[in-house]
Amino acid sequence: MTVSTAKLPVIDLSSPDRLSTANSIRQACVDYGFFYLANHGVEEELVKRAFEESRKFFSLPLDEKMKLPRKEHRGYTPLYAENLNPDSSSKGDSKESFYVGPVRGSGNKAELNQWPSPEALPSWRSTMESYHDKVMSAGRRLISLIALALNLDEDYFDKVGAMNEPDAFLRLIHYPGELGSSDEELIYGASAHSDYGMTTLLITDGVPGLQACVCREKSREPRVWEDVPHVNGCFIVNIGDMMERWTNCLFRSTLHRVMPTGQERYSMAFFLDPNPDCIVQCLDSCCSESWPPRFPAIRSWDYLAERFRLTYG
After folding, report:
1. With contact defined as beta carbons under 8 Å apart, do 269 and 202 qualify?
2. In the sheet that 10-12 helps form, which strands lie side by side, from edge to edge?
3. What is the pLDDT of residues 168-188, one digit of tens each?
4. Domains contained in the chain, number
5. Going by fewer Cβ within 10 Å, which terminus of the chain is more open, N or C?
């Protein structure tokens, strides 16, 4: 079956016309829930080094990787350990991943991170910390524009505590690219899902596979999928369920998936989520008498913890 290519807008994060940029973001989030982010300030050389270090880690023997099993949402997750679509009959998603949590902040947040042995991968930790810092900086700039896009003060998400030591997780992902051995065997790199949090900044190695569902309603059948190709120098940004909830469904949290192509694939997803204690409630600017709040207020971590429980068991 032929799949068309999504025609997503490109947002220039460096544009001095912030109001025009915010309006473009608003339109993209209402229409697609996806857009490309250009001129974001994360150097191409750093992206290249992060991908190189990611490949080095995933090429280690499994027993070495399993010395860093995922706990506190940090560390290694092996193949098939996750099924993002519980309705799917697949044996699990054909990917392995490694989570790096916040690398700065008070308390022991940064200390919860797990790191490969410096003897085996001497540049790994410093590279990932640098990459996390840089994408976090771009994410903060983006969130201020999203606030403007919602007719709020640009520091709104700071004022409500969302960006006070936010839960920002970097996920390194390796897809072996395996194909099913028969037409009946369902293999997904990542089964159909929407992201849970505020927003995601994704970059890939250029190998195709990412698809987004053009249907606004997640439950609508049949689903119509479009390819989301890599664009050099750009992040692929998508809105998460928590931001959809915050905006009372004005902004779309779009279903997406990764299909196997027979090619090995690497990506790095940066999940920018609020401070765990932040209260998420429908924004007044997104509600009216004819469109009342659709969700009760909820603490960010309570919401995310339940979503993680359903994914990982």
Report:
1. yes
2. 10-12, 34-38, 235-239, 199-204, 265-273, 167-175, 96-100, 75-77
3. 999 999 999 877 654 555 678
4. 1
5. N
Distance of CA 207 to the CA centre of its chain: 17
- Each residue of 182-195: b (16+ CB within 10 Å) or e? eeeeebbbbbbbbb
The CATH number of the domain holding residue 30 is 2.60.120.330
- 């995601």: which residue's tokens? 200
Bin 115: left if φ > 0, else alpha if -120 < ψ < 50, else beta: beta
pTM equals 0.94
Domain that holds residue 13: 4-312
Radius of gyration of the chain (CA): 19
User: What residues contact residue 168 under an 8 Å CB cut-off, 6+ apart?
Assistant: 101, 102, 132, 136, 139, 270, 271, 272, 273
HSE-up (13 A, CA, CB side) for residue 244: 22
